[in-house]
Design goal:
heterodimer, A: mainly alpha, two-stranded antiparallel ribbon, two-stranded antiparallel sheet, 43% helix, B: 1030 residues, mainly beta, 22-stranded antiparallel barrel
Chain lengths: 520, 1030
């Protein structure tokens, strides 16, 4: 029995020696940090904001990008990817807002991504405002820079939510997320965006700083640059969030003029990094090897018609039909071989998917313009072009009946500098000036900021019948909230209630050239 | 102790009486085995006494006994013989091998090893004999069709790929069905792909919690224990050499369209390009002949008959102190794709057993495997070779040179669909190399403290090192596989190191007591410490400065880098007691407490138990014709572990920026299965043995990715949030049809039927799938079977027309679909009252599976066959859906012959349905397969003539695998190949292996997600083998 006792003792000792209960508790995740880790040190906050900018970028420039372009009749593509087929169909379909939709990412990415960015900004602002975390480098307080970058990030995220969605939540660093949240309207989201951008301006006005170039890839932003950017984005959000012409007309254009005048003085956008982080899906709407190459989306015929009114607005629907003269005749220097838009004799889309996808022109500006990226190169991915700001300013002036001043802006714009088009006469009527502004908005800003053409069509009642005016809250979020599912868009309903829709019975779906749907 | 003492006294008394009154004499002789070789260590006992001796090294013995007494000769693994002592003083005896006795001792799930007859739960076993017939390339495939309740989903198909194993039902919604695999006591972390089968002695399979509770939180999906051969006590060295040389080929070619629907010039000599592009013909029928005359067969251009060969040699022997087995295997396999490098593998094994003293035994195992392969083929995805080979119209010359640089395989030959590139160019120029190193081993020491106490300690390890290199040279013309690399080149190098170490201590108490030692108890206390660490590093970049150099230093643009590491520590304490009364009433109990760093800090420890009982009826009641009847019941619990990062709150770091990913969960615990198994074993008519199990299990606390409101900033949180209820019926029958000395025929049948249902789901229903483009087809919804497919349902009867449609406007076409009468082109989808168009359209659950193996022996000739039958179970044929898109499927031309326009198949309104899942591509996956066949002829003894002086035996054989498949399934093969996550065949990102990354089901689940999406086709093989024993 002694031996037995000894052995049991011996075994127990070994067991205790090897027991690793404590070690088990000490296992940490060495790959990815948690909230406490990333928010504990002032110097680490910048990486959280950096992550927030990545979230914001990927939210708005991935799957959503081509979906909005084709729904807005800016680009055209028959492929099913990114919801392009469903959302470009004629007659228009409702958004398939269901967890079963294989392209639900079109809704989920901007929804979740913008809120992820807001959440990053809230975490950092909470650390700074509520927990008094600061970041000092060699006696210099970098906290205001971080705070300004956070407000800017939160502002542009709310701005995009307001541009895109029917409704959303407003949460800041003080919101109790354990309580159920109520939806705010898109106007309230835009208001929050403006408030945050103003907060960024306030900090920038009283501090000197440089936001480093690894937040928005390759772009260093000084306090003065930040103020300009905030002003331009405020102008964009206020103008582009108008859901129809009535709302456009109700905009305080004086304010827009002020904002645009104090806006950006150079192009803004992250530098492409081969798609590692700063990826964009604009490349499916061009002949980019990273998109669908030759099969990429083409220039919608409505844009082709804008460039050359002799071209039809719609590709003839009849089987085997061709364009009598598919090549445009235009004096715009941006059209032609090796220019922004190039003619292709072939059409690679299948006619079975609808000839309304057909077009002979494709975008190749990234090949020839050192300042225009397809995301896979190391050039600037144009997110807010100087031209865009100039055109917002010109539009504000025109709508304020300062038409002569507007003409000067238009003539200083890409219309003349890149398009080589004739300058407008100083006496040009307001309608012509507005036409010239929108011409540039559609042509020069093609494949730049997400939704640019879509938002312009929306605020001028130019969207095709049945096109969603804005996106519904994604089905997956509604399920989490236990809310009823709903959707928007489709020719047979007007669920948005924003614009009196065209009566579909009076204009059945276009099946041939003589039955072009009416735009409202 | 009193009983023991009185036993000893009785024995002593009897001994004294013997000595006093008997007529003694000394008997001596030699004990040998069936082939005449001496058996050292055999026991010789005088019956009814405990007087005995054992044979020496040469099999000699000497014992004193009375004339008329009986001597009992026994040796482990041999049939015990009794001989009466006669007049002679010499008794030489041959013992014959008792195959049954040898095979029936099983280890898994019991305290110290038990015979199958004494088990109180079900345990599957594959014996060496069955494995040797048709040696599988990897150990896991060897299980197929041989044990009931085992489903093997073929791997990526490419040589060197691992397989996915499911035992009984699927128990986990999100983390896969992989069982725990143990090889010679080593818990395998790196899969089975490296392990060759020639070394395997037997495989034991505990299929669910009822048998595997002992193994805790990794055992809910069952446990597979593999035992390699050990050295044998012999006076000579046994050398075996086996070689197999064979041919692999694809089972069948895919039927593709050879006609098209494009408009031609009036003379038919060219496509009509007057509109700038090809336009559909006016009749819309895909019945036009391709202009130009030559039709290329791309399947012929990519597939080959691949050679493979194996060489295996083993040396085996030992003495009283030391036994050893050393083996080497080389495998070389060309695979069935052209321009893909061989898979080559070298395996070394050394098994050593040492008796250091009477009380101390040391057993050690070392295994090293080294392999490399050209990881060129992705299966189960539209990326790679098969997609372009099937979908490209047969009019382009793939072998023509590139006009750019004169290199072969014109990369952009496809002028009408320039998005699809020539895969031959990619295969020839893009190098994807995978190299694997694997070292496995264990050292185990037994110390017999007292006859009834044994202490044991074991250290085991599994180390793997994999490297992957993807090199696209500078000047590479094609955009496939990576448009960014076109012209400028690309290099990726990644490596993965995994190191698993286990330390184990056991204390085993074995004793018998009571009258006649009627009560038997084996009790084991164990401690196990598992430690697993891995690291992954990846660096890649574009734009190479110098041609032909694949070093990372050759990258001009900023490279992207990534790394990850994991550490998992687990501690387990467990106790197991096996108790029986006269081996008639059998009880067994297990308790295990396990703590793991994978569980949340608040739920760090989990408890498991099993209790089981069996009653061997025939020990009490004699039933005519029945040799054995055992009734069993077992209930056990076991777990499924979360994976490494699931419990942590994570911010994803990418290029130094942190973004929110998942919200941590300090309460995350393992999913827990409770399994009840009721079974019966019956051996009857001396020829049949039959087993049946009814199994019911519930797996609660499913580990699921629960979506969160976007307002939180986190995408999701892993929580315990659901339950699966599952039922299995399984049966096996073994029938010795004929057992003559010269002529025998054995038949084995295994059968099972199982299904699993999601009985509770605490998250909204969601879709998931293998993770490749547009394959999230499987609906996870409360009340549905796990494996239900979800999509649009094309109606096949006018009575199902959605409300509001006039039946007069619709007809049923010759493909059986309701289409609009005017155009006969648009198939109609089912719509319910609420306007919903998504329904359950299929279910992977088979009606049953069955395997039939037969071994027929006549003298030196043996014939073995294995048939595998799966009845029912749907497959989603995504390949067909893609081929409809481009009118490449033969249905489109068959349809044209019946006047059905191509638009019925392609486009948005056609069955292609813009790639949205639909009932049109759900097919019955039933099949019967002649999976294995072998014919052997063995020469030994006299038949070898003079050579017999040097050789013991020579065995010639023909071996066939997957020779014939009977199925109505229209794809390549109803066994869908999928790149298994564990194969690590594509180390492209740190989080997963690239393929198979659906957020809700990391790594995919090849057992459940039966999606045919351009799979690596299953192949058949024919080979010849020669085995020589020296």
């Amino acid at each position: 029995m002694k031996t037995l006792k000894f052995n049991i003792l011996y075994v127990s000792c070994i067991l205790m020696f090897f027991s690793c209960a404590n070690e088990m508790d000490q296992v940490e995740n060495l790959n990815n940090p948690d909230k406490d880790q990333v928010l504990a040190n002032g110097s680490d906050l910048i990486s959280v904001i950096g992550g927030g900018y990545v979230s914001w970028w990927q939210a708005n420039n991935q799957d959503l990008y081509p979906a909005l372009a084709v729904a807005g009749d800016i680009a055209t593509c028959s492929w099913g990817n990114f919801g392009m087929n469903i959302l470009s169909n004629e007659p228009r379909n409702p958004v398939l807002n269901s967890a079963s939709w294989s392209d639900l990412s079109v809704l989920e990415q901007p929804w979740q991504g913008n809120y992820a960015a807001i959440s990053s900004a809230n975490d950092v602002l909470g650390a700074i405002n509520n927990n008094d975390i600061t970041w000092m480098v060699d006696g210099e307080d970098k906290t205001p820079m971080v705070a300004a970058a956070s407000y800017f990030l939160r502002g542009i995220s709310y701005g995009y939510l307001g541009l895109l969605f029917e409704k959303g939540f407003v949460v800041d660093e003080n919101t109790d997320l354990t309580q159920s949240l109520t939806f705010a309207t898109y106007s309230e989201l835009i208001d929050q965006a403006v408030t945050d951008l103003d907060a960024a301006i306030t900090i920038a006005n009283s501090n000197v700083f440089e936001i480093p170039d690894n937040l928005i890839n390759g772009v260093e932003i000084s306090d003065a640059d930040l103020i300009k950017l905030c002003n331009s984005f405020k102008a964009r959000f206020i103008v582009q969030s108008a859901r129809n012409l009535t709302e456009t007309n109700a905009i305080d254009w004086d304010n827009i003029k002020t904002l645009a005048e104090a806006g950006i003085t150079e192009d803004f956008g992250p530098i492409g990094d081969n798609g590692i982080t700063w990826w964009t899906n604009a490349n499916v709407l061009m002949d980019s090897p990273n998109g669908f190459a030759e099969f990429g989306g083409r220039l919608d015929m409505r844009i082709v018609h804008l460039l050359d009114p002799n071209q039809p607005e719609f590709f003839p629907a009849a089987a085997g039909s061709v364009l009598t003269n598919p090549q445009m005749t235009t004096s715009d220097a941006r059209i032609g071989s090796g220019k922004d838009f190039e003619f292709r004799p072939d059409i690679l889309f299948s006619s079975g998917r609808g000839r309304f996808h057909f077009s002979h022109y494709i975008h190749i500006r990234f090949l020839n313009d050192p300042n225009f990226s397809d995301g896979a190169d190391s050039k600037k991915m144009q997110t807010f072009m100087l031209e865009d700001n100039r055109l917002l300013l010109a539009e504000a002036k025109a709508r304020l009946d300062e038409v002569g001043d507007a003409v000067l802006d238009v003539n200083a714009s890409s219309r003349v500098t890149r398009g080589n088009l004739a300058p407008l006469l100083i006496t040009a009527p307001k309608a012509d000036v507005l036409d010239a502004i929108f011409y540039e908005r559609y042509i020069e800003l093609f494949n730049t900021a997400v939704g640019s053409g879509f938002f312009d069509r929306r605020r001028t009642n130019q969207l095709q019948v049945g096109t969603f005016r804005h996106l519904p809250v994604p089905a997956t979020e509604l399920q989490v909230l236990s809310e009823d599912l709903y959707t928007l868009g489709g020719v047979t309903a007007d669920p948005t209630g924003v614009v009196p829709h065209y009566n579909i019975n009076a204009a059945p779906a276009r099946t041939n050239d003589n039955n072009i749907p009416t735009f409202n | 102790m009193n009983t023991k003492l009185s036993g000893i006294l009785t024995f002593l008394l009897a001994f004294v009486v013997q000595i006093t009154f008997a007529q003694e004499k000394t008997i001596s002789g030699v004990v040998s085995d069936g082939s005449g070789l001496p058996l050292p260590g055999a026991t010789v006992l005088v019956k009814g006494t405990s007087q005995g001796t054992s044979t020496d090294f040469d099999g000699n013995y000497s014992i004193t006994a009375n004339q008329g007494a009986s001597l009992v000769y026994s040796f482990v693994g041999y049939t015990t013989k009794e001989v009466k002592v006669g007049a002679s003083n010499t008794i030489n005896l041959q013992l014959t091998e008792d195959a049954q006795a040898l095979e029936e001792v099983v280890i898994t799930g019991s305290a110290s090893g038990k015979s199958m007859k004494e088990l109180s739960f079900s345990l599957g076993q594959v014996k060496n004999e069955l494995l040797e017939n048709v040696p599988a390339t990897t150990a896991a495939s060897a299980l197929q069709g041989k044990i009931s309740g085992v489903a093997i989903s073929p791997s990526g198909g490419q040589p060197g790929s691992d397989v996915s194993i499911q035992l009984r039902t699927a128990n986990s919604l999100a983390t896969g069905q992989d069982p725990l695999i143990i090889l010679d006591g080593v818990i395998l972390e790196g899969g089975l792909a490296d392990i060759n089968t020639e070394d395997i002695e037997r495989i034991e399979v505990a299929k669910g919690a009822a048998g595997a509770s002992l193994y805790g939180s990794r055992a809910a999906n069952g446990v597979i224990q593999i035992f390699s051969k050990r050295g044998k006590y012999d006076d000579k060295i046994n050398v075996t050499y086996r070689t197999e040389i064979g041919l692999k080929q694809i089972s069948s070619r895919y039927d593709l369209a050879t006609k098209h629907y494009w408009k031609l010039t009036p003379d038919g000599s060219a496509f009509d390009l007057t509109t700038g592009s090809r336009e559909p013909d006016d009749d819309g029928l895909a019945d036009n002949i391709y202009p130009g005359g030559t039709l290329y067969n791309y399947q012929d251009e990519i597939f080959q008959n691949g050679n493979f060969n194996t060489h295996y040699a083993s040396i085996n022997g030992g003495n009283e102190k030391t036994k050893y087995l050393f083996s080497y295997q080389r495998l070389s396999d060309e695979g069935i794709y052209k321009l893909v490098g061989n898979y080559r593998r070298d395996n070394f094994r050394l098994n050593l057993d040492n008796n250091l003293s009477e009380k101390i035994n040391v057993k050690s195992t070392f295994f090293y495997s080294n392999s490399d392969r050209d990881a060129a083929i992705n299966s189960g995805t539209t990326i790679g070779v098969l997609f372009p080979a099937l979908i490209t119209e047969p009019i382009y010359d793939w072998k023509a040179p590139n006009e750019e640089d004169g290199s072969p395989y014109n990369y952009d030959s496809n002028i009408y669909d320039p998005n699809i590139f020539n895969p031959l160019y990619t295969l020839a120029n893009n190098d994807r190399t995978e190299k694997r190193n694997r070292v496995l081993g264990s050292v185990s020491m037994d110390y017999k403290v007292l006859p009834w106490i044994t202490l044991n300690g074991q250290y085991s390890f599994d180390y793997e090192n994999n490297t992957f290199q993807n090199y696209i040279p500078k000047g590479y013309l094609s955009q496939d596989p990576d448009g960014q690399a076109q012209n400028i080149g690309f290099i990726q190098r990644s490596n993965f190191n995994g190191r698993a170490q286990n330390i184990r201590f056991n204390a085993l108490f074995s004793d018998s007591f009571g009258a006649d030692d009627a009560f038997n108890l084996n009790f084991r206390l164990s401690y196990l410490n598992e430690r697993y660490e891995n690291e992954f590093n990846d660096a890649q970049g574009y734009n190479l400065s110098v041609s032909g150099i694949s070093s990372l230093d050759n990258i001009k643009d900023k490279p992207s880098i990534s790394s990850a590491s994991e550490e998992i520590i687990t501690d387990s304490y467990f106790a197991i007691a096996d108790f029986d009364y006269k081996k008639k009433y059998i009880f067994s109990g297990v308790a295990r407490r396990e703590g793991s760093s994978l569980f949340g800090p608040n739920t760090r420890w989990a408890n498991y138990f099993r209790t089981s009982a069996a009653y061997r009826v025939t020990e009490d009641i004699e039933i005519s014709g029945v040799q054995e009847l055992k009734l069993r019941a077992s209930y056990g619990t076991a777990g499924i572990r979360p994976s490494y990062e699931m419990r942590f709150e994570t911010f994803q770091l990418r290029n130094g920026n942190a973004t929110k990913e998942t919200l941590g969960n300090d309460n995350l615990k393992p999913a827990k299965t409770g399994e009840l198994e009721l079974g019966i074993n019956i051996d009857f008519l001396d020829r049949f043995s039959f087993e049946f199990n009814y199994v019911k299990s519930k797996t609660d606390d499913q580990i699921l990715r629960v979506p969160l409101s976007a307002a939180t900033g986190y995408k999701a949180q892993w929580r315990n949030a659901g339950q699966i209820d599952a039922t299995t019926y399984e049966a096996s029958l073994n029938y010795d049809v004929i057992t003559n000395e010269n002529f025998s025929w054995n038949l084995g049948v295994v059968w099972d039927k199982s299904k699993q249902k999601i009985s509770r789901l605490d998250v909204p229903a969601y879709l998931t799938g293998p993770g490749t483009q547009e394959t999230a087809i499987f609906r996870i919804e409360e009340g549905q079977n796990f494996g239900s497919m979800y999509g649009n349902d094309y109606i096949r009867s006018l009575s199902n027309l959605p409300s509001g449609l006039d039946p007069n406007d619709y007809v049923v076409n010759s493909f059986g679909y309701v289409v609009d009468a005017a155009t006969e082109s648009s198939a109609v989808k089912r719509v319910d009252e609420s306007g919903n168009t998504f329904f359950v359209i299929g279910d992977i659950t088979p009606d049953f599976r069955m395997g039939i193996n037969s071994t027929f022996k006549y003298k030196n000739l043996s014939l073995y066959t294995l048939f595998d039958w799966k009845k029912g179970g749907d497959i989603y044929n995504k390949t067909k859906q893609w081929l409809y898109r481009d009118r490449r499927h033969v249905d489109v031309t068959n349809g044209a012959a019946q006047g059905i326009p191509a638009i019925f198949f392609d486009g948005t309104s056609g069955l292609y349905n813009t790639n949205v899942p639909s009932s049109a591509f759900v097919e019955d996956g039933s099949f019967v397969k002649l999976r294995e066949l072998s014919i052997y002829y063995t020469l030994k003894g006299n038949t070898l003539g003079n050579i017999g002086d040097y050789l013991e035996s020579v065995k010639f054989g023909f071996v066939g695998r997957n020779l014939i498949t009977w199925t109505k399934y229209t794809g390549f093969d109803p066994e869908i190949t999928h790149q298994a996550e564990s194969s690590r065949s594509d180390l492209t990102t740190r989080d997963t292996n690239g393929i198979g990354n659906d957020d809700n089901t990391p790594g995919g689940d090849p057992n459940i997600f039966k999606v045919d999406n351009f799979p690596y086709p299953t192949n058949k093989t024919y080979s010849f083998s020669v085995q020589v024993n020296f």
